[in-house]
Amino acid sequence: MGHLSVIMLLLYAFPISMNILLELHYLPCIQFFSKFHGFEIIIIDDTEAFEKQSYRNRCTIAGANGPIDLIVPVHSSRRRLPVKEIEIDNHTNWQHQHWQSIKSVYGKTAFYEHYAYKFETAYTNQCDRLFDFNMDLLMIILKILKIDSNRLKLLSENAVLFPSESLAEDSEALLSRKSSESPSTIADPGSLYKGDSEGKTKILKIDSNRLKLLSENAGSEYLDFKNKIHPKAKFKVIDPGFQPIIYQQAFTERHGFIPNLSILDLIFNEGPETERILRGSAFV
Fold it and tell me: Within 10 Å of residue 193's Cβ, how many Cβ atoms?
């Protein structure tokens, strides 16, 4: 199962009007936003437990000396808390530090003045919850990108999904016929969801308590891509649905092109061209 061709099969052997399940990131990377051009609905899991050292509270921008990680400090806990309960540690002046880093890196880019003011208020008004802060920023970005926010759904707002053994069996047969001999780290092939002709959604080999429907008439496929976009190399997976497009960056002459940075990098450097580049990077 752990073969690149398997995930490519899962992505392309079925209709491309699939929906995708992701976790919410802080100032998400380009790969995250490319999914708005490859999938109809983006489902955000707001029921999950918070995971440290992930993009949930960090993003990466590119400065004069290379990549810079911006990390939102959060209060630690001895137990895993639901992501919506994670509190930001506002005892430090992290908002000012993050904004100064963004300003220092992108202040002289072609489109900084066009968009910076849209983000600045988020860094001057204190927010207590990480999920709320990330969602506020995401809404700002969707508006800039002219992406309909109605295409963004929360997992908690939907009904429970139930498994279908027959579909799981069919998928197993298909995968066994198509799998490649070349090993690779890929997304879990047991995370594809398909709707039947009556609009009732079926599930491929997954705990029915983990995934929920957008509506009883969804009638679509769902790809669970949670934790597949990750800052740690050992957790990353090959994503055949994403192909980075080279664009103008502020410090390319110093360290070359750095792919898949925070969407801020693309917006401030390319402005109106961001949509075209995102669409081109969504390999569908």
Answer: 25
From 222, 238, 253, the end of a domain falls on 222
169 plus 266 within the same structural domain: no
Based on the fold, state whether residues 166 and 77 are members of the same structural domain: no
The amino acid occupying position 201 is: T
Q: Which residues span the domain enclosing 163?
A: 4-12+159-222
The verdict on 70 and 101 lying in the same domain is yes
Distance separating the N- and C-terminal Cα atoms of the chain: 22
- Structurally, the chain folds into a number of domains equal to 2
DSSP string, 54-69: STTSEEEEEETTEEEE
Q: Do 25 and 59 contact (CB within 8 A), yes or no?
A: yes
pLDDT tens over the chain, length 284 residues: 444 444 444 444 444 457 999 999 999 999 999 999 989 999 999 999 999 999 999 999 999 999 999 999 999 887 889 999 999 999 999 999 999 999 999 999 999 999 999 999 999 999 999 999 999 999 999 999 999 999 999 999 864 443 233 333 333 443 343 334 333 332 333 333 333 333 333 333 333 333 333 333 344 567 899 999 999 988 888 899 999 999 999 999 999 999 999 999 999 999 999 999 999 999 76
57 touches 130 (CB < 8 A): yes
What is the pTM (predicted TM-score) of this model? 0.76
- Which run of H or of E encompasses 7? helix 4-12
Same domain, yes or no, for 100 and 27? yes
In order of 38, 53, 124, 191, 244, the CA distances from 267 in angstroms are 19, 25, 21, 32, 15
- CA-closest candidate to residue 109, choices 49, 170, 63, 158: 63
Last residue of a domain, one of 222, 243, 272: 222
Separation between Cα atoms, residue 78 and residue 162, nearest integer Å: 33
